[in-house]
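Why do we care about 3D structure at all? Because function follows from shape, and shape follows, mostly, from sequence. That is the central idea of this module. The next example makes it concrete: a single protein chain, its amino acid sequence, and then its structure expressed as tokens.
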Amino acid sequence: MPKVVGVSFGTRNGNNDSICKEALMGAQEAGAEIEFIRAQDLDIKHCTGCITCVKMLMSGRGNMCIHKDDFDWLAHELYTADGIIMVDPIFETGATGLFHTVMDRFGPRMDTGNNFISMQIAQKALAEGGKGVVPPACVFHTGIPVAYLGIGGSDWGTHIQSDHAIQSMTPAWKVVYNEWIPWSKKALMDDEVVARAHKIGYDIAKAAEDPEHAEYMGEKGVCPHCNCNDFYLYPGENRAVCAVCGLQGKIVLKDGKVTVEYAEHDATDENGNVLRDKNGAPAFPGLVDERGLCRAHDTMEGKQIHGEDIGRMEGELAQLQKGDEYKERVKRYKEFITPTMPSADKRYAKFQELGAEDPQPEGAR
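And the structure:
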């Protein structure tokens, strides 16, 4: 019996909780064991960017974080599930701050590629009689079918699908549904919305029975690779970058519909030389690099390329940090100004109270 975990990022017993539970009812109907988690009930701290997790992984010392909170428990519940449903309110056209915090905590620590490298380092050290800690086996549970649902109070939700899809890339989950519901304040009384959530839960449970053959079942998007509808357009040229998989292509209008076409290989000049930008990278990159590796960020090959890029940049930074010029620049900025903090009497004060003594603008009196 597959297990499906539903996570709601909304208020207690509100639309998000209820729609998540409706999806879990569908999963249960399909024969799955179900579990419901309210993200707001958990203590999940922000990632500080200290890269302790990266240092631990890349030295073969296991999968660790400096924080002591509920994130590790949440991650374990998700990694040991067979199917996942996440329901998230839409804030400023995108995912909630809490969802972003969870997403930040997933990467790079929970990245499948990073943990695979860490496992190799640890196993080598242990085989040679040294010390090493292999990451937990569940972190290699990839391809878990996942559904994302964004619940919006209006029609401002153009970025929510990108936020959700990006979260799935770190653990290499398989996105089966990625949808958002506009004008959903009355979602519980909208039979069509309720029925859709039920079907999504049912389908996730069925996909969890055979995850190797799980496929995307939602509406086809503009990106032919990941179905994303969110692109960065370079001003003054026909070049579009998918906000999720990172592939670059050209906008094409076919049968009255906008799509993006990706070239197989990097663009070259008349002599066959790859066109490069000021940093030496391909100016118009194709689907694959010079080694034939797929550049899409949601593939294992794309993760390898990204890992190599990050490793190169970290190496260059480490060398810079040894130099006196770098140290002098850090010292200059450190001594220039110190951070402001609230005084003891204003710590945790409410904005309304803090502004009570401010001069009032004309017309507000």
